[in-house]
Amino acid sequence: MADALQRSPGSSSRASTREEELRASAISRAREAAGTRSGIHGDDHWRRVAEVGLIIARREEVSAHVVLLFAILHDCRRENDGHDPGHGPRAAEVARTLGHEALAISPEELDRLAEAMHDHDRGLVTEDTLIGACWDADRLDLERVGITPHLRFISTPAGSDPDLIDYCADFLRDAPSWDELAQHAERIMEKTR
Fold this sequence. Notes:
The chain has 193 residues and is mainly alpha-helical. Helices cover 56% and strands 0% of the residues. Residues 7-15 have low confidence and may be disordered.
């Protein structure tokens, strides 16, 4: 797929800005808070959600950093890999406990992140493009559990792209590392400054 994350060897040669350092620290805090999970709602899923979420964020021009935080945290308080209706609200509480400063986002972005996490498994759609990018990225990874995402549950035009949907159907693809995902998010944010 043309805009799948481009992997580049090594790290960027340009100096990091204070903002980038804060976002990197926030991602590290979020990953620590999320812990490690195995199974269908663990790190592989989170990295695929991040990868697709960043593609959607770029196309929809929403915060790549918030989408990345959503990917890391949205399933972090699952109690099992089956039906767990309270996991979204519990994950939203983790984000609120960490707070907007620790996550390097504004209070308004924290509210939207918490809303996205709280309701991500309810089958809703939204006109809020940032929340929609988060939900779409998660839903486009449903193939891993044998569910083909239905377009009526997709909120963004980018999430409805047939090429992106086909790309996501390969749930066995090797998702980029967290470092690669963070670098990609920074590149997206550079272009929107």
